[in-house]
Specification:
The protein has eight helices and eight strands. It is α/β, with parallel strands linked by helices and 234 residues long. It has a single domain (3-233), classed as Alpha-Beta Barrel (TIM Barrel), CATH 3.20.20.
Length: 234
């Protein structure tokens, strides 16, 4: 596993759990607003490579945190790009920790394997945009059928899960939120996360303005027509 970075403690990223958070290197999307370009762009990953965290060092760290940490969040980048993800999750589970996976949903076959083998306990899938409009934000071609398959797998898995959308005022309006909410209707939880200007993969996106509190509440009401548990962050 290419571990580009680690946050040794998070109380926010794994609901109800004290966890460590790792960032895998590499992603198949090029979202302009991404705040982690160092784990996405090949030229930046190459620069980081000498500082990647060896698996054995990570697992030594985990062994020293037994009884303190509950679980591990595997984020990225896009973790499902890595062929050794199932084996990596198994090693975490073997040590008695829970596993949460953050994913963009483009590898449903990997998700299916992880679910069937009980290698994950929580799945969070980003929904970037209405499924047919993904290229506007991710800058690559995406088959909506692949995303729909991942959504179905997650919803029927009986695992704890959430879908989440980072909302950008320049791209997301009421119509877009309605389409997104319909796509994940009946989910356990849907989170609307307000975009915050910062370091972004495409510098132009750092000029995007966050949504107003009033816009976010309007979006929440729209989403609640399709999902009972809707949270707004930011």
């Amino acid at each position: 596993m290419l571990i580009g970075g680690i946050q040794t403690l998070t109380l926010l990223d794994f609901p109800g759990k004290v966890a460590a958070l790792i960032f895998t290197a590499g992603c198949n999307f090029r979202c302009g607003y991404c705040h982690n370009p160092q784990f996405v762009l090949p030229e930046q990953i190459k620069k980081l490579a000498p500082n990647f965290i060896p698996e054995e060092k990570f697992f030594h760290f985990l062994d020293t945190r037994k009884g303190f940490l509950d679980g591990v969040v595997i984020s990225g980048g896009e973790p499902t790009m890595h062929e050794d993800l199932p084996a990596f999750c198994q090693k975490i589970k073997d040590r008695g920790f829970f596993v949460k996976l953050d994913t963009n949903g483009t590898n449903p076959e990997v998700l299916e394997k992880l679910i069937e083998k009980k290698l994950v306990d929580f799945i969070a899938m980003d929904i970037k945009h209405p499924l047919e409009k993904y290229p506007e934000l991710v800058s690559v071609s995406v088959d909506p059928r692949v995303l729909k398959k991942s959504i179905r797998l997650i919803k029927k898995s009986e695992l704890d899960h959430e879908f989440r959308t980072t909302v950008l005022s320049d791209y997301h309006g009421k119509a877009e939120i309605e389409q997104i909410a319909k796509a994940v209707a009946g989910a356990q939880k849907f989170t609307l996360q307000n975009f915050r200007p910062a370091k972004t993969l495409n510098p132009e996106f750092s000029q995007c303005q966050p949504c107003t509190p009033e816009q976010l509440q309007d979006f929440k009401k729209i989403a609640e027509k399709h999902i009972a548990n809707v949270e707004v962050l930011g």
